[in-house]
Each structure stands twice: as structure tokens, then as C-alpha cells.
């Protein structure tokens, strides 16, 4: 089979679609950021910084060069000292999606489709709150991202874009993360949709993204078979990305040991996310993606 790196298909494919009923349900949710979780920002999904604005925040002593229009003269009459009123200004938080489009995500077509629909749902949630959305597919390298803003009316652009994303090639999350940082240096919320089958690269990627101040969400997508193998006997296994083959003898005992190892792998991934101030959610493709969005992401405090 001919393989290629993740890319945007040259031929126009059918736009990805979410049902009208599900889109209506999404309008009742909010995509949370790290500041939301600490109570700094309310449900409108914005960060707040001091600056010119309408909401009063506090007083501070007047310094030479400050705008005298912000002086509180009533405080001066009471205390004989000059104080400035400070206000809060609202700053939109950009939402960025790193979408794994390597061949391992396509070993079961339902797996890659699941990740694409999650990306569409995350994008719609962000657009509902007028945030800027960037979708960056990656395999060994980062593909050309889509950047959109302007509310739900531009969601069709996202649906069309995702309908043309293809999967192929090997994974290099660390290199893709470095490319991502060069294209998007400003801080924001970064959601990584992947199977994360490269432990070391995942850890290094999370660390460099966190060092740059990004709010991280790791969304692990896998099939039931990847968690719990159902085939027994002598098996010829092939690596989906490298093509390397290996013959193994599978029994109920070895399958149970594999399942324990997979569970430990998921725990390690969760710890990497939490240790770096991020969040983690695991999506099994046997669960409808709509249900995962509404329940699984709520338990992980990704949406509210």
C-alpha cells in the first residue's frame, strides 16, 4: 500500500458533517480553559487581564505618566492621595487543535473518522464563543493549518477542510510540536488528538508546549481491539507505520497481560498531562463520539 504523510487531499471530498441536533446540543456547552478551572474566567471562555475596560477591578497609587483621566478624585478628597481606578479587559483565548493523521490513526477507518469528528466538535464549540480556531494536522511534519474565526457561520469552512484531511505516514509528535510553536508562538489552549503510541515523543512534546505557557488537553483515541485483542493463536502482526512484521503466539493469558500493559500506558499518559498542568481524556471508538463529548469530556473538565 502506498503511504504518504498527513495532507489535505487535492480532490474535493465531502465535507465532514455533524447532525443539526448535536450542533444544537453543543450550544449548551462551554470549552473550558485552564483559567476557567481556577475560577479566573467565567463560562464565556475568556481570560482577563488588567487594562482599559468597563469592569472595575481595584485601585493603585498614581505614578508619573499615568493617564489622569483614571484618577479617583473622591478618594483624593477623602485621603489626600492620588489613586487610579483599574479595570478588567477581556481577551479571547485562541483554540488550537493538533490532529494526528499518521497511519496508525487509520489502521481502523472508524478511528480516524472518530478523531475528525472530535476535531469538528471542538472547533464548533470554540466558534460559538467567537474564539479563533486553528486546526493543524500532523504526521512526521505539520501540514498547512486552517485558521478561522467569526462565529458559527464559518463552521462550514472547518467541515470542508476536515473532509479533505487524509491519513498516512509515520508519527513525529515532537518535531510537529516544534513546528507548531514556530507558527503559533502566542499562548492558547492546545488540544492534541492522537493515539500517543510514542511515549517518549509525547512526553517531550507536552513539556515544550507547557514551557511556552500553553493550556494542554490530551485526547487519546483508540479502538477496542487496541485495548483488548480478540485474536488468538499464531499471528503475523505488522506495524501500521513502518511496515515491520512480527510473528507472535497469542493466548488468553498473553492477551490479558497486553491489556494490563495498555492500561498502564494510559495511566502514564494521564500522569504526563496532569504533571504539566494539562488535562486528559480517553475516547474508545466503540462509544459514540457524541456521548464522549457530552459525558467523557465533562468528567475530564474539558467542557462544562
Characterise this structure.
The protein folds into two domains: 238 residues, Rossmann fold; 44 residues, no CATH class. Helix 6 runs parallel beside helix 7 and helix 7 runs parallel beside helix 9. It is of the alpha/beta class and 304 residues long. Helix 7 links the parallel strand 9 and strand 10. The N terminus is likely disordered. The chain is built from ten helices and 13 strands. The strands form four sheets. It has a six-stranded mixed sheet with strand order 7-6-5-9-10-13, with helices on both faces.
Write the layout of secondary structure elements.
Blueprint: E1 7-8, H1 20-26, H2 34-38, E2 46-51, E3 55-61, H3 73-79, E4 83-92, E5 95-100, H4 109-128, E6 133-138, E7 146-148, H5 155-162, E8 165-166, H6 173-183, E9 189-194, H7 199-211, E10 215-222, H8 224-227, E11 233-238, E12 245-250, H9 252-275, E13 279-284, H10 289-299
Parallel strand pairs: 5-6, 5-9, 9-10, 10-13
Antiparallel strand pairs: 1-8, 2-4, 3-4, 6-7, 11-12
Helix pairs in contact: 4-5, 6-7, 7-9
Amino acid at each position: 500500500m502506498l503511504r504518504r504523510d498527513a495532507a489535505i487531499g487535492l480532490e474535493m471530498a465531502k465535507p465532514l458533517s455533524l447532525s443539526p441536533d448535536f450542533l444544537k446540543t453543543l450550544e449548551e456547552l462551554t470549552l473550558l480553559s485552564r483559567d476557567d478551572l481556577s475560577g479566573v474566567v467565567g463560562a464565556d471562555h475568556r481570560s482577563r487581564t488588567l487594562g482599559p475596560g468597563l469592569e472595575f477591578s481595584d485601585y493603585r497609587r498614581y505614578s508619573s505618566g499615568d493617564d489622569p483621566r483614571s484618577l479617583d478624585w473622591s478618594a483624593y478628597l477623602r485621603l489626600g492621595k492620588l489613586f487610579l481606578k483599574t479595570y478588567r479587559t477581556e481577551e479571547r483565548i485562541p483554540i488550537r487543535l493538533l490532529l494526528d493523521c499518521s497511519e496508525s490513526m487509520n489502521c481502523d477507518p472508524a478511528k480516524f473518522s472518530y478523531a475528525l469528528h472530535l476535531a469538528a466538535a471542538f472547533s464548533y464549540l470554540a466558534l460559538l464563543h467567537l474564539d479563533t480556531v486553528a486546526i493543524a494536522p500532523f504526521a512526521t511534519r505539520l501540514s498547512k493549518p486552517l485558521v478561522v474565526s467569526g462565529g458559527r457561520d464559518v463552521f462550514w469552512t472547518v467541515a470542508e477542510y476536515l473532509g479533505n484531511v487524509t491519513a498516512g505516514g509515520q508519527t513525529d509528535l515532537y518535531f510537529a510540536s516544534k513546528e507548531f510553536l514556530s507558527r503559533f508562538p502566542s499562548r492558547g489552549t492546545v488540544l492534541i488528538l492522537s493515539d500517543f503510541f510514542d511515549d517518549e515523543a509525547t512526553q517531550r512534546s507536552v513539556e515544550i508546549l507547557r514551557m511556552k505557557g500553553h493550556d494542554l488537553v490530551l485526547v487519546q483515541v483508540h479502538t477496542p481491539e487496541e485495548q483488548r485483542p480478540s485474536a488468538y493463536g499464531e499471528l503475523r502482526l505488522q506495524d501500521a507505520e513502518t511496515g515491520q512484521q512480527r510473528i507472535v503466539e497469542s493466548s488468553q493469558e498473553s492477551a490479558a497481560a497486553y491489556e494490563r500493559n495498555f492500561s498502564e500506558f494510559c495511566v502514564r499518559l494521564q500522569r504526563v498531562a496532569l504533571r504539566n498542568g494539562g488535562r486528559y481524556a480517553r475516547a474508545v471508538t466503540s462509544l459514540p463520539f457524541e456521548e464522549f463529548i457530552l459525558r467523557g469530556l465533562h468528567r475530564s473538565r474539558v467542557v462544562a
